[in-house]
Amino acid sequence: MQVRIGLADTGTDVDVEVEDVDAFVRELEAAIESAASLRWVEDSEHGRYAISVAKIAYVHIESERTRTVGLR
Fold first, then answer.
1. What end-to-end distance do the CA atoms of the chain give, in Å?
2. Which of 36, 42, 53, 67 is the residue whose CA sits 20 to 30 A from 5?
3. Structural domains of the chain, count
4. Does 53 reside within a domain?
């Protein structure tokens, strides 16, 4: 599932492909609650990013979409 993390004061979004969304959310919440300064994530092209937890503006989790072919 696709997750987009927006970073405050930068205008930058990081797109992350996540297999277990619930586990990702729990880990992110734990990082925020523990006042951790960084959270490492891997993007869809396997690049790794260290994100400042304090600078996370939003987290958008896309819902599952079914693909259609042809006219709707």
1. 24
2. 67
3. 1
4. yes
The H or E element that residue 30 is part of is helix 21-33
Residue-wise pLDDT for 1-18, tens only, equals 889 999 999 888 888 888
Q: 54 lies in a domain? A: yes
Indicate whether 28 belongs to any domain.
Answer: yes
User: Is residue 71 a part of any domain in this protein?
Assistant: no
Average pLDDT over residues 24-45: 86
Cα 31 to Cα 26, 40, 44, 51, 66, distances in angstroms: 9, 10, 22, 11, 32
Is 0.85 surpassed by the pTM of this model? no
CA–chain centroid gap for 22, Å, is 12
Question: What is the residue range of 8's domain?
Answer: 2-61
